[in-house]
Amino acid sequence: MKIALDAMGGDAAPAVTVRGALDAVDALGIGVVLVGDETRIRAELGTQGDGRISVRHASEVVGMEESPAVALRRKKDSSIRVAVNLVKSGEADAVVSAGNTGAAMATSFLVLGASEGVDRPGIATVMPSAQDPFVLIDAGATVDCKPMHLLQFGVMGEVYASMALGRANPKIGLLSIGEEASKGNELTKESFKLLSDSHLNFVGNVEGKDIFAGAVDVVVCDGFIGNVALKIGEGIVEAAVHMLRRELAHSLLGKLGYVLLKAGVPELKKKLDYSEYGGAPLLGINGICIISHGRSSSKAIRNALAVAADAARNNLPETIARGVRKTVREVTSVAS
Q: Taking Cα atoms as reference points, which of 2, 82, 73, 3 lies closest to residue 38?
């Protein structure tokens, strides 16, 4: 098992990416190819690492604010492009990047192509809830969707929830403005019909207030709504933690309350910490690409590499392709 890591991707690269790679090879027993500025990478590596870590030089880096389209045309030797090429050539089993998300998605889709039968890719993000974690798809890959795309996202989410969360026959919900089938816009109404006609364990619409209550295992939506929901969720967690700290430090009773709550705080922080989930796979492509947060710590990078390794071992792209082909045949036969 060998994973290509965009060593220049992320706010604190390459220090954080190299540290995460070192932790991963020790804990996971995998090989990692660090892709990027060889001089800077080797300066971070020093004498650490062994034969399981190698370096592939890339002379360019895609900045976090750069246009993905421009980067694709002009930066053919960028760290993300070289890393994805390693997957294409079979020299790596997957790629991980905490760099420019748009560039990682566009490059992976262009170089690796879509899985057979898949129309559009989707980002599957694991998110915390009051019960157990759930999968949100799409978190930003395809912002303008058709009903068939959301049906395919449902299949991708089912496959990924089964693999990553160990859910048998995961419950699928469609994010909408009401629980009734008649609620929502034309996209959600038509998608509701397709999902209902499929083999998926579709439980109907879910509202925004319900997704963090743990009502379903997979939340399906278009990439525009999904990315907004993701960012709102992250913002609420950060704001709630900030307010809690401020209020607890405000008085003696607050400080006493913190002492009483302290035993449960680490477990709560673990559930809310995005680094625990590592990264989000771009599903529906003919290969494995894991996208991590730009603020990823070495722990997040290590966990993203673990997600990539699991996806490769489970042959995630082919499993998704089979599921999508089967489901499309089902709904097409029902419609006819």
A: 82
Q: In a structure prediction context, what are the per-residue pLDDT tens digits for the chain, which is 336 residues long?
A: 999 999 999 999 999 999 999 999 989 999 999 999 999 999 999 877 778 999 999 999 999 989 999 888 999 999 999 999 999 999 999 999 999 999 999 999 999 999 989 999 999 999 988 888 999 999 999 999 999 999 999 999 999 999 999 999 999 999 999 988 888 999 999 999 999 999 999 999 999 988 888 889 999 999 999 999 988 887 887 787 777 777 777 777 666 666 666 665 556 555 656 667 789 999 999 999 999 998 899 999 999 999 999 999 999 999 999 999 999 888 887 765
Structural domains in the chain? 2-118+284-316 (3.40.718.10), 122-274 (3.40.718.10)
Cross-strand bridge partners of residue 172: 202, 218
Show the tokens assigned to 16. Answer: 């954080």
- Torsional sign, CA 250, 252, 257, 258: positive
Q: Hunting for tokens 């999968």 — which residue is that?
A: 135
Q: Is 64 helix (H, G, I), strand (E, B) or coil?
A: coil
CA end-to-end distance (rounded Å), the chain = 44
Do 285 and 317 contact (CB within 8 A), yes or no?
A: yes
Q: Can you list the alpha helix ranges (DSSP code H) found in the chain? A: 15-28, 38-45, 68-74, 79-89, 101-112, 147-164, 186-196, 208-211, 223-248, 252-261, 265-272, 298-313, 316-335
Residue 137, SS3?
strand
Under 8 Å between Cβ of 43 and 327: no
For 147-216, the DSSP string reads HHHHHHHHHHHHHHHHHHS--SS--EEEE-SSSSTT-S-HHHHHHHHHHHTSSS-EEEEE-HHHHTTT--
Q: Which tokens in the block code for residue 292?
A: 């991590």
For residues 70 and 214, what is the distance between their CA atoms, to the nearest angstrom?
Answer: 40
pTM of the model: 0.89
CA distance 133 to 127: 5
Q: How far apart are CA 293 and CA 300, in angstroms?
A: 8
